[in-house]
Each structure stands twice: as structure tokens, then as C-alpha cells.
Amino acid sequence: MIHKTILRGWLLRFLHEMPTGEDDGGRMFTSTELLQGNLKAAKIPVTRSDIDRELAYLQSKKYVELKKPTGAAARIFDGGVMVRITGDGVDVFEGTTEDKGVVIP
Known about the structure:
Helices cover 48% and strands 10% of the residues.
């Protein structure tokens, strides 16, 4: 089982790799399913509940933004949430802000 601080770092890493392009200049949203697929490809075994729990932590620190999809996006995301890294999350990932609760691998 991966330590929660390292899982948070992996989540920020994958979110940081998302392209920019939203109307507000931020990184694009992705799904929790895609994050879980990325973690699986990196041979990091985690459950969906592990991801949801750590995304909730990252959201509470304002490192990620979670959004419930509506309309056609709701069908694509199949009841999941959309997630993207925030400016504060980028600062933690890039090391300009230190948070002992997040270990960037």
C-alpha cells in the first residue's frame, strides 16, 4: 500500500502534466478514472476510494479543483468528478511551496 503523502504527490504530478487550455488559462480537467489508469500504468496499486480520499484532502488545501460534470460531460464522466490542479497545487508540485503532507515522487 502506498503512503498517502506519496499518493498525493503522484496525483499532483499527473494533474500537472495536463495541458493548459481552459478559458481561464488553467490546466484542463481530467477524470478520476484517468488518474486511476495513470497510477495503474505506473504500477501504483490504489483503489478508487484511496484516490477520492486524497483528492478531498488536496481540495481542502486548495491544491486541486473538483467539479461535478453536467450535461453531456456527466455521461462521459459516468458519475465521477472532474479534477484539475490549481495554482497553489502547481506551487507545491514545483517546490515553491512546501507541504509535508505531500511528497512529490
